[in-house]
Amino acid sequence: MDSTPDTQPSVPAPSAAARTVLEGPDIARALTRIAHEIVERAKGADDVVLLGIPTRGVFLARRLADKLREITELPLPVGSLDITMYRDDLRLRPARALARTDIPGEGVDGRLVVLVDDVLFSGRTIRAALDALGDIGRPRAVQLAVLVDRGHRELPIRADYVGKNIPTSLRETVKVQLTEEDGRDGVLLGVREPAPSGER
Amino acid sequence: MKRHLISATDLTRDDAVLILDTAEELARVADRPIKKLPTLRGRTVVNLFFEDSTRTRISFEAAAKRLSADVINFSAKGSSVSKGESLKDTALTLEAMGADAVVIRHHDSGAPHRLATSDWIGGCVVNAGDGTHEHPTQALLDAFTLRRRLTEGPNGGVGGDLEGRRVTIVGDILHSRVARSNLHLLTTLGAEVTVVAPPTLLPIGVAHWPCAVSYDLDSVLSKSDAVMMLRVQRERMNAAYFPTEREYARRYGLDGDRMARMPEHAVVMHPGPMNRGMEITAEVADSPRCTAVEQVSGGVSVRMAVLYLLLGGAGPADTTPADTTRSDENGQPA
Predict the structure, then answer these.
(1) B184 plus B309 within the same structural domain
(2) Longest Cα pair distance anywhere in chain A, in angstroms?
């Protein structure tokens, strides 16, 4: 979902140490490349369904769908998949608000589902997404596209399409900003404040 | 959010909107091939019913099961209560079984409050109707139905409240826990409430309630966005509150003529069970403007939302403002 395994991550009071590692045009180029890779690997992308993981994964999925439409000249189903109810850390914090799950009318059965998220970190979000997807239908295959892979996996999960690999230390935060949600495009690398609750 | 749901007054506007929004998301689970979420796996919900109920009990049971909780149904009939066991001893038994939540319906007003404020049980308490006091989940599902029906656009009012909507509650206000909970919740959500009843069926102190009072149904119909008809509770009426049923139906019942005088968008609500021919005619009950069936189907989603928000995390949901931009993670359980 985000830079940290928790949902509402440290929007790093970015002032101090945060530095921009990807600018708007870099993000656009990365998405264009991922779109081409999807078409190449799926040999045409005609049974692809894009499912974004809220919040920013959904915007990325919509942007990818636009790029894919330019390439294939076919409209492509795009939706969102909320994973809140499937998280493995629900009981560590007060109950969270849910985000929208919106499965395109065609469903996912027998299709190639590409999950889209902004940052791949522990892999726990994707584990939850796979569980959520299993309750919705049976895709032909599931692939994963992320804008940033920052490493530190805690589960055997990897991405099929990566916008940019950013090696990080656990003390760092990765924050993706998108115009739809944050008013600007960019990826910020910051330093995590020593967390008072000491999670992780 | 508070840890227990005893009264509609326990909810702030943000709490109530969060419950309605969560219910709106959970309602979509009902359209899936697998109508189940793993969220409350390993948690135990006890339905403790000292009073007859079909709708509410089934709805709470379905809600808990869709969230994968273990459900224990306890009804006073055929249990040790009929042998004279007290509420306290029943509660201690449930605690010994490890109940994470107790959904209680009781014929005495205040029983859920007693259960929540005693140290008999550690789980959270959800009031499913107590005496003539409150029935908060009914009010929530009424608000859920109202928001859906009265808000245009694809979003069905998600994120919004009922600001400026005019709701008229008609009938046995004196005995109705549904009326009390609705009055508080609808007011919290910004609606303007008018209660209409014969003077004998209004409680003492109604003048201090945050609502308008009228004895004349016809004068308020044309200004209502929703009319909520209450059941005449014969079982609670040990005195003569009105001369004859026929006179009550004529003055306070909703028939086709009266419905025609309501604004075009206005809906008719009824918490059920209906007395057809008494407070509502069959013509009105069966018309598409009557939301009684929607109210029942919304009930499961709303109760799922309540159970999830109370039990799903380490503590009840946090509704401090600006939830989405919260920067640190040490949200203290309330």
Answers:
(1) no
(2) 51
